[in-house]
Amino acid sequence: MQESRQIGASARLAKGVHPLNSDAMVKNLRVLGIESSCDETGVALVEVQGAGVPVLLAEALYSQIEMHQAYGGVVPELASRDHIRRVLPLTEQVLASSGRTLADVDVVAFTRGPGLAGALLVGAGVACALGAALGKPVLGVHHLEGHLLSPFLSADPPEFPFVALLVSGGHTQLMRVDGVGRYTLLGETIDDAAGEAFDKSAKLLGLGYPGGPALSRLAEQGDPAAFKLPRPLLHSGNLDFSFAGLKTAVMVQAKKLALAQDCAVTDLPANVLADLAASTQAAIVEVLVKKSLAALNQAGLKRLVVAGGVGANRMLREQLNSECARRQVRVHYPELHLCTDNGAMIAMAAAMRLQSGQQTASEVYAFDVKPRWPLDSL
User: What residue ranges of the chain have pLDDT lower than 70?
Assistant: First the structure.
């Protein structure tokens, strides 16, 4: 058990890559992480000593939600421009909070993909510029791997192996995780992700942007059994997901209710909207919970990790906690503030890849980004 927590021998830490090949660096490695894949700019500093679990020294995050609300969703060009404005001030904030300077940074990590191409290029460009100026190596990190490993920053970190439910606005996947970089895809969505189902259903109900959290808040006031909505692929016999049909069913139900009351969907009584929101959330959560349990059974494992923005959903956590307790399964989540995109998960993933010997940082500062990048290709 202790060996699995160590995640690889310290002697293999970024072997042979200057300046990470000194004994001092092996014992004390600091990674600056930059996240800019979509509509949050995140910067964090993580420290790892030897084979120990990396520790978060400081982090800073700026969300673009208010800027994008006027458009009902993320505008890629605006997102990229805002990342440019925020990333260096956030870096200064992190260094000041940690009591460190740029000279104390050993590796600069950045989100290489997946995400919005322009937004990714901002983080990659800044990271490589910092690396070149400081003479320090850089490392491109997979965004989803950051989410996947983010629970290692929590007060109750997991141990390998485990099944991971990656559930966010753009991704819904079940993975078997045997170690850093050792990922096997068990199932994924064939159309809309769970987060998209939340967001698009919320938009249909006139709840604005970001829709998922708004729908979840409204659902707390409603009856989850008020409307019979489909649970797509619940009995498919595999571990894949599909949420596009559910979104369509919510739209059809909402239009029927509006027609019956001779009003627009957004003008339906508050209690009706709350019931529809609660029924929508219940359908999404039931599918996520039952597929996660089926994945654990298929993998023969007793440990589940939940990561990604939808992992903050209270109903999902309550039902997973209850069902996993019944089956004597341990379930782990990142801290709530680490469920959204953030720099801490990028720094953490980079530190763990270096520590495990899965990857070495590079002093080649030419870079590219991968807007589409399957996690199981690592």
Answer: 1-27
